[in-house]
Amino acid sequence: MRIFRSKQNKLIAFGLTIAVALVSAGTVLAGWGPIRPTFTWANPATYITFNSITDNPFFGDERAFLMTRDASAGTNTYTDSIDIENNKEYIVQIYFHNNARSDLNLVAQNTRVRVDLPTNTNTGLEAIGFISADNANPGTVHDTVGFTNDKPFKLQYVPGSAYIRTNLLNDVALSDSIVTSSGALIGYSALNGQVPGCAGFSGWVNIKVKAIEQPTVVPAYACTLLDVKTSAGRKVDATITYSTSGGATFKNVTFNWGDGNTTLTTNTTASHTYGADGNYTINATLKFDVGGTEQTAVCSKSVTFTTPPVTPPVTPPAGKLPDTGPGSTAAALFVGVSAFAGIFHYLWSGRTHRNF
Known about the structure:
Blueprint: H1 4-16, H2 18-23, E1 66-70, E2 81-83, E3 89-96, E4 107-108, E5 112-116, E6 122-132, E7 140-157, E8 163-165, E9 172-173, E10 184-185, E11 195-196, E12 203-213, E13 220-231, E14 235-245, E15 249-256, E16 262-265, E17 269-273, E18 278-290, E19 293-305, H3 326-355
Parallel strand pairs: 2-7
Antiparallel strand pairs: 1-3, 3-12, 4-11, 5-6, 5-10, 6-7, 7-12, 8-9, 8-12, 13-14, 14-17, 15-16, 15-18, 18-19
C-alpha cells in the first residue's frame, strides 16, 4: 500500500522549489519532475508520456513513483523517506506506466530506468529514479526517495539485485547498468524497450541498496617540532614540522623572533638575524583550515647569543727585565748553588794540605 501522505509532502516540497528550478535550470530537485501536463484515470493522455496520472486508484499520484522499504519488512511498508539501520538492506522500487490511451496503440520505444545513488557520506541521502523513452514527452521523468540516520552513512548498490515485474515478466533480472548513466532496458513482455500505453502494461522495477554507517572523522592538526639552527653573526634558520589528518590543511606560519620582528610565510622555513646579544624565545604560530574554520597551533624554542670579551696583551714597566717564567728562576738557583759549592771545596782543600 502506497503512503499517500508522503507523496503529498513530496509534491508540496517540489512546489516550493519551482522558483529555484527557474534559477538553476537542469538541476534535479528533491521530489518529482519535470513539471508536465497531468491526466486522470478517466482521461488518460493522447500521446506517450510516463507517470503523469494523478489519481491512479491502485497507486495514487504517479509522479511520485519512487519508493523504498526495509527489505525484511512487508510490501505494505513502502514510503518516500526512511530511517536506516546500519548494515541493513532496503528495496528501492520504481513504478512505470505509459499513460497513453489504450485505443491509440502507442508504444514507448527504448524505455529505460535508472537509479542514481549518492556517492557521498552524510546523515541524510537521496536516491533519484529516472524513466525515459525515445518517443516520450517529456523524454525523461524523475523522482526521489530519502534515507536518514543520526550518524553519517553511505548507500551501496547490491549487485545482481535488480529485477522487473509485469503481467508477463515475473521477477526477471535486469542489468546492473541500472545504477549507471545508461540505465537498464525494460519492457512489458520482454526486455526490448517497448512499453504499450495502458495501465495493464505498467510494471515495477526493484533494486536493493545497503546502508553502511561510516566512522566519524575528526580533523586533527599539530605543530610537532620547531628546529632552530644558529650560525655566526647571530643568524638563525628555523624549520617547523606539522601533522594534519581528517581533512585539516596547513595554511601558513608566523615566526615571532622575540625581538619585535615577525615573518609570515606559507613555507615551513624562515631565517632571521638578531641585532644584539641576548636571550630570545622564538614562537611559530601555524594556521590550519579545519572544515572551513581557521585553527592555530604553536611551537616554541629559545636561543641565546653572547659575544666573548677580548683580553688585551700586558705591557711590562720600563727598565725591568721581563719575567720569562719558571725556567729563568731555576737557572738562577743553579748558578747560585754552583758558586757556593766551589767556595766550600776551596776551603776544605786548604785545610787538608796544612795537616799533612
